[in-house]
Write a structure and sequence with these properties.
Polyamine Oxidase, Chain A, domain 2; 23 strands; 18 helices; FAD/NAD(P)-binding domain; alpha+beta
Length: 543
């Protein structure tokens, strides 16, 4: 008999679960998404032909399954001759990069191979990221300061902090106290809005993993003498990768294609629909109540299982547990919200000559981490460098100015026009544009973009145990698990949920183990269902 599975949310986790379900079972997924488009935070926002990638999504994973899955949906652009000799390296294995199971698409539904460059902007100067002991770094810092940083790092190696409880402990142990103060503390606290000493070290373990000064230096040495040129770069820490795949029209193109395949295979995807209530009996979800956000009409839908990507606090509220203390923990789970000011400019780093503004070419960076303490701007994306097709006019530069904030706070509540002017003034203040070169702009707000690891998070184990007590409920994705997952972590969680659904297993150990260990991504796919890691944004940026 056909089984109905309700999926709350059409982001990477929800859509991956839907497609995998249709491929591997008799289940029919009914996907409900409150937004006007699919993709979640991985969607592409189109503003007058300029496409914006919210947060930046490098399509790179150490999971064979994820890399193959992406290439099956969107083949890699290029003829066989162009791709000949370009290989993916998997744990010493080399395989043809063009080994997609799909024929090349002639309609632009492809992925590009893109170079990675991201730098730190500090003291109105650019620093390499990862940090390198280069002439430029020594010149920017000065020899004396560089010596102090080296001594601080040596001290951290000899006398590490023990126990390692907070994110400050984690960063100091890996980079030294002085380097932590110079390049990590201010930026990380700008991102999260709380001191590093109040954030759990678990966050660093998930997002930074093995990256350290030593690993960065070894990477620089390998690069200098010649190393693996493959895109997958299996032995390279995620924050150090130099090439990645990227959909021609941004990450949303991937998830729009997945949506179309889900619908073609018999699933349903309903936009502007939200799950507003969950009815359960004992240990089973029986039905969910869905609201059409356009008509405001509601209806109950009976289901055999539920996959949830909605925020944990929202799901627990709808489940109505008797335990008041459990509800307190779930309701207190913290988030960091996110805003992007999309600006279209004539050029960057404009110079004035005889009263005439002469805009310069944009840097080659995908994104720039703004470490400057005198602005609230956190990160700057240059969309031209992700894919030329994201930009409507190639003679302009499309920028994404990213701010980390609190829903309902001063930045979040700022009127759009005022916020765009504020963002442009900040970018001008640090010398990266001339505000008179701004041609157009738009604002995108993303609530609950980043699940945070402080406050009530310390008791999240109780919430996980409660959710795992339901035989047919599977929380997946970044918000669904209140875990700072990347895109491929969310996909692997969705795959694992479908594994459990197909096999009838109630064991959620594999599901909650994704993105928790340093070495899990080194396991072979056949040995562990939890293999994989993705596009860790940066040990500095943490977003």
């Amino acid at each position: 008999m056909t089984r109905i599975v309700v999926i709350a949310g059409a982001g990477p986790a929800g859509l991956t679960a839907a497609l995998e379900m249709l491929r591997r079972s008799d289940c029919v997924p009914l996907v409900f998404e409150a937004d006007t488009q699919v993709g979640g935070i991985s969607k592409t926002v189109n503003y007058r032909g300029n496409r914006m990638d919210l947060g930046g999504h490098r399509f790179f994973s150490k999971s064979d399954w994820v890399m193959n899955w992406w290439q099956e949906i969107l083949p890699v652009s290029g003829s066989p001759d162009e791709l000949q000799g370009m290989h993916l390296a998997y744990q010493g294995e080399s395989r043809s990069f063009a080994a997609s199971r799909q024929p090349m698409s002639g309609d632009g539904r492809v992925m590009l191979v893109r170079p990675r460059l991201s730098r730190i902007y500090y003291r109105r100067r650019f620093f390499d990221y990862p940090l390198k002991l280069s002439a430029r770094m020594l010149s920017n810092l000065g020899w004396f300061e560089a010596a102090l940083l080296g001594g601080s790092y040596a001290r951290a190696k000899v006398l590490p902090r023990d126990p390692e409880v907070t994110l400050e402990d984690f960063l100091v142990n890996r980079f030294g106290h002085r380097l932590y103060l110079t390049f990590f503390k201010d930026y990380t606290e700008k991102v999260w809005g709380v001191p590093c000493r109040e954030i759990s070290a678990e966050w660093g373990a998930q997002r930074i993993k093995g990256l350290s000064v030593t690993s960065a230096l070894m990477h620089a040495l390998r690069s200098a003498i010649g190393g693996d040129k493959g895109v997958a770069q299996k032995g390279v820490e995620t924050s150090l990768i130099e090439r990645f795949l990227y959909p021609r029209l941004g990450p949303g193109q991937m998830w729009e294609e997945v949506r179309d395949r889900v619908v073609a295979a018999g699933g349903q995807v309903h936009l502007r629909h939200a799950v507003v209530a969950v009815d359960h009996s004992g240990e089973s979800i029986r039905r969910v109540r869905v609201r059409d956000l356009e008509s405001n009409e509601e209806r109950w839908i009976a289901c055999d299982a539920m996959i949830s990507t909605m925020p944990v606090r929202q799901l627990v509220e709808q489940l109505r547990p008797d335990d008041a203390d459990l509800r307190r923990v779930a309701n207190g789970l913290p988030y960091r919200d996110f805003m992007t000011a999309g600006l279209v400019v004539r050029g960057m780093a404009a110079a004035t000559r005889r009263g005439v503004v002469q805009p310069a070419a944009a840097p080659k960076d995908n994104w720039i981490y703004i470490q400057e303490p005198d602005v609230q701007l956190g990160r700057l994306q240059i969309f031209n460098n992700w894919s030329p097709d994201l930009v409507a006019d190639p003679n302009t530069v499309s920028l994404g100015l990213e701010y980390f904030c609190t829903e309902g706070g001063d930045l979040w509540s700022m009127e759009n026009g005022r916020f765009l002017d504020f963002a442009a003034r900040e970018l001008e203040k640090i010398g990266l544009i001339d505000r008179r070169q701004v041609l157009d702009g738009t604002v995108v707000r993303v609530p609950k973009a980043y699940p945070a690891y402080f406050g009530e998070y310390r008791e999240i184990g109780r919430v996980r145990d409660y959710l795992s007590s339901f035989a047919n409920l599977f929380p997946v994705g970044r918000n669904g698990m209140h875990r700072y997952n990347n895109q491929d972590h969310s996909m692997l969680a969705a795959k694992t949920a479908v594994d459990c659904l197909v096999s009838g297993s109630r064991d959620r150990t594999a599901l909650w183990s994704i993105n928790t260990e340093d070495d899990y991504h080194e396991q072979r796919e056949g040995d562990r269902a939890t293999a994989g890691t993705d596009t860790a944004r940066s040990s500095v940026a943490a977003v």
